[in-house]
Amino acid sequence: MTAADTTQEDAARDDDGHGGAHRLSRPRDWAWRRRIRANRQTYQVYRAIVATIGFVVVAGGLVAVPFPGPGWLIVFIGVSIWASEFHWARRLHEYGMRKLREWNRWVMSRHLAVRGGIALLTCLFVNTIVWVTLKMSGVPSWVPDPAEAFLHTHLAL
């Protein structure tokens, strides 16, 4: 058995070793990925690089989650990076997307007042995070003096 045969066999088997027990879509099989998989050492290095980049993106997204901005989107992008090479990450990505669709469906099926309440609670949460951050770190120096005075007077910063 050649190294290419072993690599193809490994590529055909799912990362969890079940050989297709899960019916998830495989990522695109571009020519450059086939060339990488043809050499076992290159393939292992490639997988390590994908794992590292995915980890950095997911970790950065998790740090950003409590702050205003696209924290969860960044996490999903990181999991998508992992999912390009790892079966367990494809399952996690599809699970997350399924839950996101269910949440969206549930919210959209509610009365407008309930959706408004969810939006209000979300805004309250984001504003609380911003207030705590400013309380702990102080008002940035680039904020104009009148705005800083307002923040100190009315928001107890």
From TrEMBL:
TM region(s), chain numbering: 45-65, 71-91, 112-134
Domain of life: Bacteria
Region annotation Disordered: where it falls in the sequence: 1-24
Keywords noted in UniProt: Membrane, Transmembrane, Transmembrane helix
Compositional bias of kind Basic and acidic residues: 10-19
Keyword Iron on entry: no
Entry-linked Pfam families: PGPGW
InterPro entries documented for this protein: CHP02611 (IPR013434), Uncharacterised_PGPGW_TM (IPR019099)
Protein name stated in the entry: TIGR02611 family protein
